[in-house]
Write a structure and sequence with these properties.
Elements lengths: L1 E5 L4 H12 L5 E4 H4 L3 H11 L1 H4 L5 H5 L2 H6 L2 H10 L8 E4 L2 E4 L3 H9 L1
Parallel strand pairs: 1-2
Antiparallel strand pairs: 1-3, 3-4
Helix pairs in contact: 3-7
C-alpha cells in the first residue's frame, strides 16, 4: 500500500498528489495535522532516512523553535520535536511498502515507480 504523508494545504504535497493521480497510482493520503503521527512512525523514518533528511530547517516551524533547541537537536530530540510539531517534517513523505521518499520531484517519482 502506498501512503503519502503531508499536510493538505502544502503546495508540494498538492503537486505530488496530482502527479500520483495523473499517473494512475492508487495511494492513501495521511494528513499529519488531522491524522497525527506516532513516535514509532517518526523513529522508523528517522532510522531509514536520517533525522537531518526529515527535518525541514527552512520551515517556519523550525525558525519558531527556541534557538537552543535548534542548536542542540540530535536524533533523539528530533523525534520528539517532529511528533510535537509535524510541520517540521519535510513534505511529502511517500511510503511505498516501506520504501520512503522525502520531498517531491517528478523525475524522482517517475524513476521510483518505473523500476
Amino acid at each position: 500500500m502506498i501512503t503519502l504523508y503531508g499536510i493538505n494545504n502544502c503546495d508540494t504535497v498538492k503537486k505530488a498528489r496530482r502527479w500520483l493521480e495523473e499517473n494512475g497510482i492508487d495511494y492513501r493520503f495521511h494528513d499529519f495535522r488531522v491524522d497525527g503521527l506516532t513516535a514509532n512512525q517518526v523513529t522508523d523514518w528517522s532510522q531509514q532516512l536520517g533525522w537531518e533528511t526529515l527535518v525541514n530547517k527552512r520551515s517556519t516551524t523550525w525558525k519558531q523553535l527556541d534557538e537552543t533547541e535548534r542548536a542542540t537537536m540530535d536524533a533523539n530530540s528530533s523525534i520528539n520535536a517532529m511528533v510535537e510539531h509535524p510541520t517540521l517534517i519535510k513534505r511529502p513523505v511517500l511510503d511505498n511498502n516501506g520504501e520512503l521518499l522525502v520531498g517531491f520531484k517528478p523525475e524522482t517519482y517517475q524513476d521510483h515507480f518505473s523500476s
